[in-house]
Write a structure and sequence with these properties.
signal; TPR_rpt
Length: 209
Amino acid sequence: MKISKWILAAALMGSSSLAMADAMMDAIADLQHGWAKGYYSTPEKQQEAYFEALQARAHEVTAKFPGKPEALIWEGIITSTHAKYQSKLSAGGTASEARDLLLQAEKIDANALDGSALTSLGSLYYKVPRIISFGDHTKARAYLERALKVNPNGIDQNFFMGEFLAEKGEKAKAVEFLKKAQAAPARPGREDADAGRRAEIQELLSKLK
């Protein structure tokens, strides 16, 4: 009888954990679609306010699922995007907040969401100014290389490496990674983000011709 009760308790705990994981991934999917809408479809004049509100929603998800790298990653991504549309006076602090969230996620599980924390950190380190903030191209390259080891065929991993190399003047290598990003497999449930990213890839390839 005691063994049966233990098995039942374990089954209930497992069921509860699965339900929580499903709830978290549903919340993250909502944030992902919200990010794609804000980044690719929202008028530029409205993007700062849009991402400020989305950042608050992302923080609620992180608070609801503490210690989960997936939630931290998406709060970090949305926070870094919010910084892009802020004034220079505000953007530095917001970008630092995004970095810290992504570093937390990396510490917990660097491979979570196909290495998205590594990809986002790489992007953040090369886009943030080096003179007045924490920008660091050496760290950017290292993070992007690590991300590619986790997901060598990923659209984001290859796009950001291509974009970074283009900025560094390494045109031939940049084109190589961008073409690989262009050929990346579709991500189920991320059709909106994939469409927007592919448009960015094509635009950058055209500029590099």
